């Protein structure tokens, strides 16, 4: 069963029709349009309008992976796929509603350094897969990238610390920093856990990305894998030396991903009351403060197993 799920999702993943521009080492640049077709824009509703709030990655026909800290109970979200230039209607955009939001049960906004900063979003229906929308590959369980492995962060995040948001999708080369280096006391120290992956952290590292978006790494098979979900950066400046960008390491969460796909709780054809829903403690705390916001059934975490 587990193997089957992985196989289904591995079909045609990580092979963009428009190859990304990887020829140059630069400090962030506009991405080639639609060369990261799994990149999505997670948008939150304010009044009658939606605003970009986080990045995310299409990892299955109806599944998007983003960061746990991107999700607030009660907020209404949508996903835009096939996006490149935020201010232009390019005709490639596909908008989907979110049917289910599954935040990792151990994610806690008050303890970011504990990790588990992940959320899975189930779309109301699959987007049409074409040259501007496709899925990224998921890494093997437990896979660890070597120090210096060339990966790319993508997103519409700030161009520089507290800078403006770019209209066009940005990409920046971020070489992986291995855990033994990233956890040195003058780097991130004990803040960074082995379930995280560090990349960047010197002058060539960029700020160009945003929360919830992918760390894209080319596999030996020539496919692009999402190895990380952007979690946090230094609060001082985003390209501080020895403070690489920290990602949730996807290869540490393969089991949770498979469990969530197969969880009957996340299958909208089954009545929800068959399975007990559990909120994480931090969500319960937040719900106490904003009780009205938590009455929505669209928000719950998967039961801790
Ligand atoms: C992909 O599908 C969408 C939705 O049908 C469409 O708008 C778009 O033109 C298609 N092609 C490309 C290259 O995006």
TrEMBL record:
Biological process annotations from GO: proteolysis
GO molecular function: serine-type endopeptidase activity
Assigned GO CC terms: extracellular space
Keyword Signal set for record: yes
InterPro entries per record: Peptidase_S1_Elastase_sf, Peptidase_S1_PA, Peptidase_S1_PA_chymotrypsin, Peptidase_S1A, Trypsin_dom, TRYPSIN_HIS, TRYPSIN_SER
Keyword entries, A-Z: Disulfide bond, Hydrolase, Protease, Serine protease, Signal, Zymogen
Pfam families per UniProt: Trypsin
Keyword Disulfide bond: yes
Domain (Peptidase S1): residue spans on this chain: 25-262
Residues annotated as signal peptide: 1-17
Record-given protein name: Peptidase S1 domain-containing protein
């Amino acid at each position: 069963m587990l193997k089957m799920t992985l196989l289904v999702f591995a079909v045609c993943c990580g092979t963009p029709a428009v190859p990304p521009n990887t020829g140059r080492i630069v400090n962030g640049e506009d991405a080639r349009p639609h060369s990261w077709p799994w990149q999505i824009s997670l948008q939150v509703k304010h009044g009658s309008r939606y605003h970009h709030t986080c990045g995310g990655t299409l990892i299955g026909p109806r599944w998007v992976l983003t960061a746990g800290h991107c999700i607030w109970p009660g907020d209404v979200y949508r996903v835009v796929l096939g996006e490149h230039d935020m201010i232009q209607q390019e005709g490639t955009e596909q908008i989907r509603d979110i049917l289910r939001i599954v935040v990792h049960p151990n994610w806690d906004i008050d303890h970011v350094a504990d990790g588990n900063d992940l959320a899975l979003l189930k779309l109301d229906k699959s987007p049409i897969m074409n040259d501007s929308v496709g899925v990224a590959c998921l890494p093997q369980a437990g896979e660890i990238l070597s120090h210096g492995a060339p990966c790319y962060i993508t997103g519409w995040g700030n161009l520089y610390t507290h800078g403006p948001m770019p209209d066009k999708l940005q990409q920046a080369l971020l070489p992986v920093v291995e855990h033994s280096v990233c956890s040195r006391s003058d780097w991130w120290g004990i803040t960074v856990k082995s379930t995280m992956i560090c990349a960047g952290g010197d002058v060539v590292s960029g700020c160009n990305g945003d929360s919830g978006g992918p760390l894209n790494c080319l596999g030996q098979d020539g496919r692009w894998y999402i190895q990380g979900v952007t979690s946090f950066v230094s609060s001082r400046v985003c390209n501080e030396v020895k403070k690489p960008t920290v990602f949730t390491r996807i290869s540490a969460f393969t089991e949770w991903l498979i469990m969530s796909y197969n969880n009957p709780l996340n299958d909208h054809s089954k009545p929800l009351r068959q399975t007990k829903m559990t909120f994480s403690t931090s969500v319960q705390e937040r719900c106490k403060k904003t009780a009205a916001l938590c009455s929505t059934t669209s928000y719950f975490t998967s039961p801790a197993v």
